[in-house]
Each structure stands twice: as C-alpha cells, then as structure tokens.
Amino acid sequence: EVQLVESGGGLVQAGGSLRLSCAASGFVFPTYTIGWFRQAPGKERELVARITSSGTTHYADSVKGRFTISRDNGKKTVYLQMNSLKPEDTAVYYCNRDDDWGRGTQVTVSS
Predict the structure, then answer these.
(1) What span, in angstroms and rounded, lies between the C-alpha atoms of 77 and 90?
(2) Average pLDDT over residues 15-28
C-alpha cells in the first residue's frame, strides 16, 4: 500500500520559514517523481514544486527563489524548505506521487 505522510506545517509570521517533510512507503521510492501541491480555501490545488528520480527540480513561478525541494532516497523522504513566507502561501500542502496523495499539512502565514 502506497503511503505519503506529510508533516512540518504550522503557523508562522510573514518572512519566516518552515520545512515540510513527506515520508513515503509502499513503492520503490528512488524511481519516482514526487511533487508538493497546495490548496488554499476556495482555490484549486496547484503544483508548488516537484523533483524527479534524477534530482531535477521544477518550481511554480510564485515560489521560485524562496522554496527548495529535495529528497533523501535512503530515508524515503522529500522535503520542502520554505523561506520568506508570505500570507498568500497559506494553504494545505500535499505530497503526491502519480495518483497517490497524502492527507496534507496546514501552513498558515500571518501578516
């Protein structure tokens, strides 16, 4: 059974930082692209960043230069380091592999 478990969310002031983690199990982790998505109230879910099996990364324009995605294949974990957070980053953040999703972790940025 594929499992993706997010952690690390919380409440932070604008300009602050958080690091999200996505712990994976149930599949051959190193061979898959893993993505972070987010969904704010009343908005559609959107891609934040993704990292391929070879370590190639892609970011949404809105987070470029502020967020960094990385992976540790030994720990089967993908990280999202979020710096210079803005109130518009407030959302539930989800980890994704193909059609599989975690339950999400809430990130709230206060102004």
Answers:
(1) 23
(2) 96
